[in-house]
Amino acid sequence: MTSDNAGVVAVTNKGRSHSKATNLTLKQIFALQALNGVRIRTDWFPHHIAESSIPTARPPFGENDIIIASAHTISHQFHSLPAQPQPETQSLSLNPSPFRPHCRADQQLYLWQGPNTPPSTTITHPVIEHLASLATRASLCDTRNYGAGLHKFHLFCNIFSIPETDRLPAAFELLHSFALWAVSDLSESSISSVLQVSTSIPYEPISVSVMRKYLAAVHAWHIAQGWPPPLSDNHHARINWSLRGLDNLVTSRCKPLYPPITFDMLHAIKVTLELSDPFDACIWAMASCAFFWMMRFSEVSVGSRAAFNPTKHLTRKDVFMGTDLSGKSYARLDLPSAKTACPGEIQSVFIVTEGSLCPVVTLHNLASVVPVLPNDPLFSWHNHTGEICPMIKQRALE
User: Fold this and answer.
1) What global pTM score does this model have?
2) How many folded domains does the chain comprise?
3) Are residue 119 and residue 154 in the same domain, yes or no?
4) Distance CA 103, CA 151 (A)
5) Tens of pLDDT along the chain (398 residues)?
């Protein structure tokens, strides 16, 4: 698929978006691909290029690929999809303010200010004041992560019409309210119907752990702007009490169950991979084995190359191929570590051949495409230099 819309290209290639409404559309697109055995590939082209000059097919596109000339044809291709109710979403964005100039996230801690003048913390001398400014900026090694917390705080203030003068310094009542709002979503809770309150207030809930980081960002913002810390130990204790209660209420919402993986999804994944390629062969072996052996993704991947440990992760010698008494091929995995196993205990899992998605076949293919030594990672591939690499979780998800 070719499009002049960079956003369409990005979310289609990733398969996900920050927008709930877009994610619903992407799910429909993926369902169509799985149902029809096709794959949509996306490329960007400048809007001024004529559609007639765009090639209708080129490698690596194949007979099961969809080529669409431009962005406006996407809706035409999928107009026959059954309509699904779209959630009412409100784009949450900051109101423009002279106190919050446009800048990088790592500069917001210092450049976003308030109308109030902070109390003096040094004598009035340009050298001393300059040294204090240098010390403030050097106190934090990385301030990029604070930008998200400040952005969320000002969103809350905009929604509830908090004046700029009350944001810096912020009172305990304001920050406590900010914490309650940020982790709640009354639109998905029975509380709204019990209290008969309006659900017109927009919500963009985050987890309790992230909320604590956002409070730390507001705390750092106050100090960087010359104000005392906004919360005392007693204030933190009260906010943590509320967050703990809300965490108990919204755990099911914060961590929803993932939809089940289906055979159609596996078929859709398989047709997009080139099984003679070492990387793709490893990805397909991981997907097939994780599905049929009911393994967690962390059991077929590692966090980093240095994290691979033969005593904890599967190696090639942990796989045994055989034939049962009825003459049917099977595979056995000897798990070096498992959640249900005692320390040092090895658990074995078995699987027989299972049609076109069979993990036994995928393991045979992986062994032929990526030949390695017995102590090398089971799910591994070799790069352009021939070096054997364990499959890293983040690289696989990309």
Assistant:
1) 0.45
2) 3
3) yes
4) 12
5) 666 666 677 667 766 666 667 777 877 787 777 667 666 767 765 554 544 444 444 444 444 444 333 333 333 443 444 444 444 444 567 888 999 999 888 889 889 999 999 998 889 898 998 898 888 888 877 777 788 899 999 999 999 999 999 999 999 999 999 999 998 866 544 555 555 555 567 777 888 889 999 999 999 999 999 999 999 999 999 999 999 988 887 655 545 667 788 888 888 889 888 999 999 999 999 998 888 888 888 788 888 888 888 888 888 898 888 888 888 888 888 888 776 667 777 778 888 877 888 888 999 999 999 998 988 899 999 888 888 889 888 888 77
> Based on the domain organization, do 118 and 223 belong to the same domain?
yes
Torsion of CA 65, 70, 73, 74, to 10 degrees: 60
CB of 180 closer than 8 Å to CB of 205: no
Residue 374: other Cβ atoms inside 10 A: 10
For residues 124 and 245, membership in a common domain is answered with yes
Is residue 171 domain-resident? Answer: yes
Asked whether the bond before 169 is cis by omega within 30 degrees of 0, the reply is yes
Domain range enclosing 140 = 105-254
Same domain, 247 and 283: no
Assigned domain for 137 exists: yes
